[in-house]
Amino acid sequence: MAKKIAEKFKMMIPAGQANPSPPVGPALGQRGVNIMEFCKAFNEKTKDKMGFKIPVIVTVYTDRSFTFETKQPPASDLIMKAAGIKKGTDNPLLNKVGSITKAQLMEIVDQKIADLNTTDKEAAARIIAGSCRSMGVEIVD
Amino acid sequence: MQNEYIELQLLTDEAYLDLIADFIMQHYDEGIEYGNDRLIVRSEDEAAIARLEAALEILKASLETRIPLQWEKTRKPNEDWIKRYQASVTPIRSGDFYIRPSWYEAKEGLIDIVIDPALAFGSGHHATTYSCLEAVSTYVLAGDEVLDVGCGSGILALAARKRGATVDLCDTDPLAVESAKENFERNDETFRRIWEGSADKTDAVYDIVIANIIADILKMIAPVLKARTKPGGRLILSGILDKKEAGVQEAFSNLVLERRIQKEEWITLIYRKDSNG
Predict the structure, then answer these.
(1) A27: helix, coil or strand?
(2) Does A51 contact B at CB distance below 8 Å?
(3) B81 shares its domain with B170
(4) pTM attached to this predicted model
């Protein structure tokens, strides 16, 4: 049929946990998207990625139908994979749970930089390093 | 449900949205929304927002002024979001049909079709679906064999079935095929056949072939659509933007144009194939 896009927007939602409360409810409800159908379909599609946060792009058409596309998990998941841990620390100041090398950090920057509208690797590295610190992952030489 | 929720609008450079979003997600368990130059965090959990703000202060300090990062916090009235959504979708009437979401009641004297706006296209609210329903209402008779090409939600085949036709459906999108099956079940109706793909996957011929797709595809598959139509049968073509109408008319010029329906910028054309084929 003649699909005409009314709006396209992006969210990041924990896999398998979309529900009609904030934040998902207001985001979808304000745009006239069938909240129940979205939650059902998103949770079904991401149920094998529980524990990860999933970027999702929702396209809403003029007749109120919608489609969505899920993306790969974000840099923090790449950090956890590089550090060989399943979870960040609950206290980044006291408990360090792992480490990655500067080279690994820059590898993550290289992977993520393709998604960004910047070539400033140093700035990107600062943010990812910030994520590492907050997860209790040290950066070593 | 709480009466209010907290909304945090974080403004930053567009280039760093993903990385900042990733940082937020390390300190916050719920979802976030992306704007063009901002991230929107919404939560009913005040403590969770306070923890996030503390983490953002630390990040802001470590970024110095290299990357802009600021945020505004507001309290917003919470709602029953499902109810609000449901109230925003209203039933429509086209021809003899009354298309309604499942949370509305049927209307006496009209042919009832239940479709909830969902993943597949075709809830009746789009101009092309609306016009096709009008055409189905006029041209489909009990006992007709009907093919719906590019069926989406299956709404047009469902309408034809409700008028007593035997219906086949196809769509190249597997999601649409599943959705159409569900909608037939929800309406207690049956189809004869449904398949993933286009009209070239069958040799059958039909009294009426419906194709609500887009102009370029209609032109491309014109020979197949004509071949699937019985001599004396009709083709209902839609999804045609007014500026593309001439091209479609040219591709179907060996058939008789019986009717043209325009709604907004969308055109629906009803053709009849000559009885001699």
Answers:
(1) helix
(2) no
(3) no
(4) 0.74
